[in-house]
Amino acid sequence: MRQSLILTSLTFVVCLGCDTAARQQQAEEARRQQTVNELRELGEEMHNNPENQSAPDSTAADTSEEDPDSPNNNAASSE
């Protein structure tokens, strides 16, 4: 009788431990999925935001001429 009680208690403890591990795994998967969804939404917002979509302007060409490390400027300054 005593062995049966011990065996039943051990079985109960093991099952409880497995259930806890399964819950932890489900919670971690839910957190991961929430993070993926949030990142997806942020990406879509950035992609769809008209302020982030600008046409190339002439300032990029102007800054390369003023950049002292630019290979084009080094060639011009050595002449």
Q: What's the SSE blueprint?
A:
Blueprint: H1 2-48, H2 59-66, H3 71-77
Quick overview:
Residues 38-48 have a biased composition (Basic and acidic residues). 78% of the residues lie in helices and 0% in strands. The chain is mainly α and 79 residues long.
Spatial extent as radius of gyration: 32 Å
Number of helices: 3
Order of helices and strands: HHH
Instruction: Compute the average pLDDT.
Output: 76
Amino-to-carboxy terminus distance: 102 Å
Percent helix range: over 70%
Low-confidence stretches: none
- E-strand count: 0
Largest sheet: none
> What share of residues are in beta strands?
under 5%
Large-scale geometry: rod-shaped
Structural class based on helices, strands and sheet pairing: mainly alpha
Biased composition (Basic and acidic residues): 38-48
Biased composition (Polar residues): 49-62, 70-79
Region (Disordered): 38-79
Verbal overview:
The chain has three helices and no strands. It has helices at residues 2-48, 59-66, 71-77.
Keywords:
single chain; 79 residues
